[in-house]
Amino acid sequence: MQFVNIVTLLTLAVVLHSPCLFAGDSKTSCPTCRTIVDNFVKGLDKTAKKNFGGGNTAWEERALSKYETSEIRLVEILENLCDSSSFECNHMVEEHEEQFENWWFKKKDTYPDLLKWFCIDNIEVCCPRGTFGPDCNACVGGSERPCHNNGDCDGDGTRRGDGKCRCNKGYKGDFCLECDDGYFNKERNDTFSLCTECHESCQTCSGPTNKDCNECKSGWVQDDEKSCNDIDECANETSPCKENQYCHNKEGSFSCKACDAACTSCTGEGPEKCTGCSSGYTEEDGKCTDINECSLPDKSCLRVNEDCVNSKGSFKCVCSQGFEDKDGACIQTEETEENMEDEDSSETVSPDNVHEDL
Predict the structure, then answer these.
(1) Do residues 34 and 119 make contact, with C-beta atoms less than 8 angstroms apart?
(2) Shortest CA distance to 251 belongs to which of 275, 277, 217?
(3) Residues 274-318: tens digit of each pLDDT
(4) Fewer Cβ atoms within 10 Å of its own Cβ: the N or the C terminal residue of the chain?
(5) 294-333 domain in CATH 3.40.50.720?
(6) Selecting from 3.40.50.720, 3.40.640.10, 2.10.220.10, 3.40.50.150, what CATH number does the domain 235-291 have?
């Protein structure tokens, strides 16, 4: 058992200290390295003229000159390159601390671009922009204009990827020079392509208007002049919607909307568009109007001590004030001692509250 534990610990140590896990083989190695360099540059700005009042005294100038290239300043910058929770960042800084010191004291003037010197040329986890893969090969379209500026090169700027293009919206093809469906070439040559969106009615097109469609989208139809026009689905004899809905046309499509509560069927919004009235409503002046059941000659509420309360499309029967529903009848509410005391106190007038005109 002890032998197994030793082997496990040794294996873990090898895994944790294996450069391949934190260098070129990691998908995040290049982004991590770029973050480190960005934070290093921020650290340079933050520590510039630190702890000096700007009095321009000879002493300050001599001290500042020493601090600018000092190990103290380098340590301050290195300590703030990574968040404490970022394992890969802290590991990369710790693993290559000597290279930072080498650049700081010996290479900074000759190689001022830390990203190129550190991430690309030394630890080799990144590539220059416009290149990809282990050998930093140029992306499709060239390193200056990857994917002809119409897409993203897979692995761009890293030691990973295959260099293939992921085209932007509106573009397609291996080189991102062709226009996708719904777009047309406004400008085009062997190395440049500008794709512009077609008119909303076109599936494919050769220009910007509805007269330039090669094919109409669903919901549109081509007329005798070869223009794509909206199909009004709501104009059909048979509505595409359910009985309690009305059809609302829109460009290239339609929607079904619920009729007003007063309608069983309708042609549009509101009770005046009903073609049939719901129960509890009646047609008046071409509009479905609520029936006030409480005002009808025949009483709707038949129990003694019961009131009728009207509501839209309906009504309800409730016991009158001072009565309550018990076993299907409206019975007078029983007065308790507490209720009687409240009534007595409300009727008693305090002498203090009596006002007499003098």
Answers:
(1) yes
(2) 217
(3) 999 999 999 999 999 999 999 999 999 999 999 999 999 999 999
(4) C
(5) no
(6) 2.10.220.10
